[in-house]
Write a structure and sequence with these properties.
The complex is a heterodimer of chains A (171) and B (288).
Chain A: H1 2-29, H2 45-56, H3 63-77, H4 83-103, H5 107-133, H6 139-151, H7 153-168
Helix pairs in contact in A: 1-2, 1-3, 2-4, 2-7, 3-4, 4-5, 5-6
Chain B: H1 12-44, H2 48-86, H3 88-123, E1 132-140, E2 149-152, E3 165-167, E4 172-179, E5 184-188, E6 195-200, E7 206-210, E8 218-220, E9 233-236, E10 248-254, E11 260-264, E12 273-278
Classes of the chains: A mainly alpha (171), B alpha+beta (288).
Chain lengths: 171, 288
């Protein structure tokens, strides 16, 4: 009886791991790194988490969860509220379609997939914020932000693969 | 264990619910996209609910942000220490020369100060009370290319109010746009939404400093006859009553494309501690 209950709790906790890592990634995206000019092109680490979990554990990142996580980032980062909620929902829906193919791909193909994903999210963010402000924002800082985020993929993936292996014995 | 036939795999209920679930799933995407766009519209219209939620979230997570920002702050302090060590000899010589110059300025300032006091007493002028200052630590700043703001670790618990000017050791960095109990958000002068009434110190020409979300803010509404020289200092004018008069902001640089850009005195990328000037907005008598 007790072991059944414990295994039930363990399964529930296991299912929350992608969401918890996403919350942690949002929280580490916001504090300052004190690097000159970094604030304007800062990496959004939560994009890494959204991509990884949407590919390998899509059933654990529900559309509504993606929406709430995007909203959480919006409120904490001070960007127009709803912008990343929109980006996260659309990204999660699209990644859900290609998760099978991406999940079976090798690392370089996966990185290429992430590159396309970041280009898409950065462009959507640039367009949405430009419409919101009523003026076209400087695309150069958005480009550098995208480059930095793509460059962080191998490092972030190492951590997420480690978590996957520990929790789900896959990855 | 006996399973109710209604819930057995392949049962009629599950077969009926599958298309229903698919419809709900498909409409959920549109519902959530519409909700996200509605949030953006509400935020654009400065909804108080959105602002309050943002304040509460920043307040709740400020201890975690404070904790997460500590390692980077320690590394930054260590690297700055190393940087200072390498320049110690050069700095020593520069500071000695500067000290000699400042001794002359000190005598002039004392003389002018005494004259100023006498003249103010003769004219019966009342002087502005200096605003009280609160020191705060920056616990959030990396919002990427879409916004230029900071989160600081003090709020109404230290008397902060919306609109308070925020400065670093070098000059103005922004103003408080929302305040929670133990955190506040500061809009930097480089943000596209920032507007600061300023004047050029030497020519007394007035203008509005506006951010561009990239490196340097620019001056708008300068008079056509404005007499500007590269390197001229720009300070707050105090018009509008939000900022105290005379806070140093930056120096004029030549952009070459007709825009008058400002190089900010404060190093906005490496802010660790800032000072908030707790200053009540001056309202015109007819609005009191």
């Amino acid at each position: 009886m007790l072991s059944n209950f414990l295994s039930f709790v363990e399964n529930i906790a296991r299912d929350q791991v992608p969401m918890i890592t996403m919350i942690v990634l949002v929280l580490i995206s916001v504090p300052p790194l004190y690097l000159p000019h970094y604030g304007g092109i800062a990496i959004n680490f939560s994009l890494l988490g959204l991509f990884y979990w949407s590919v390998y554990k899509p059933q654990l990142i529900h559309l509504f969860t993606a929406f709430l996580l995007g909203l959480f980032y919006d409120f904490l980062a001070g960007v127009p509220v709803g912008m990343f909620a929109l980006i996260f929902v659309v990204s999660r829906a699209l990644l859900g379609i290609y998760s099978g193919r991406l999940g079976a791909a090798n690392f370089l193909s996966l990185w290429l997939g992430f590159f396309l994903f970041v280009v898409g999210t950065s462009f959507t963010g640039w367009l949405a914020s430009s419409l919101w402000y009523g003026v076209f924002l400087d695309p150069v800082s958005v480009l550098f932000h995208a480059i930095l985020t793509v460059a962080s993929f191998p490092f972030g993936t190492v951590l997420l693969v480690w978590i996957s292996r520990k929790v789900y014995q896959v990855g | 264990m006996r399973i109710n036939s209604k819930f057995r795999p392949g049962s009629r209920l599950i077969r009926l619910s599958s298309p229903l679930r698919a419809v709900i799933h498909k409409s959920l995407i549109f519902i959530l996209i519409s909700a996200a766009i509605s949030f953006m519209v509400l935020d654009k219209n400065k909804s108080t609910t959105i602002e309050r939620t943002s304040v509460v979230i920043a307040d709740v997570f400020s201890p975690i942000l404070d904790f997460v920002s500590r390692p980077a702050a320690s590394i930054n302090k260590f690297l700055q220490g190393l940087e200072n060590l390498s320049q110690l000899h050069k700095d020593n010589l520069r500071l000695r020369a500067e000290n000699e110059r400042l001794k002359d300025w000190k005598m002039i300032a004392r003389d002018l100060g005494a004259q100023n006091r006498v003249l103010k007493a003769l004219l019966g002028l009342t002087s502005d009370l200096p605003p009280s200052q609160v020191t705060a630590r920056v616990i959030g700043d990396a919002a990427g290319p879409f916004v230029r703001s900071l989160i600081i670790n003090v709020g109404t618990n230290r008397g902060l109010k919306k609109g308070n000017a925020v400065v670093s050791g070098e000059g103005l960095i922004g103003r408080v746009i929302s305040v929670g109990e133990r955190s506040a958000r500061v809009l930097l002068i480089t943000d596209i939404n920032s507007r600061v009434p300023v004047l050029v110190e030497s020519s007394r020409d007035r203008a509005i400093l506006t951010g561009t979300n990239v490196g340097q803010p620019k001056l708008l509404f300068l008079p056509a006859s404005a007499d500007l020289t590269e390197g001229d200092r720009v300070v707050t004018s105090g018009h509008g009553g939000v900022f105290p008069v005379g806070l140093p902001v930056g120096t004029i640089i030549n952009s070459g494309d007709g825009n008058v850009l400002i190089s900010t005195l404060a190093r906005l990328g490496r802010l660790e501690y800032v000072r908030v000037l707790v200053f009540d907005k001056i309202t015109p008598p007819d609005q009191n």
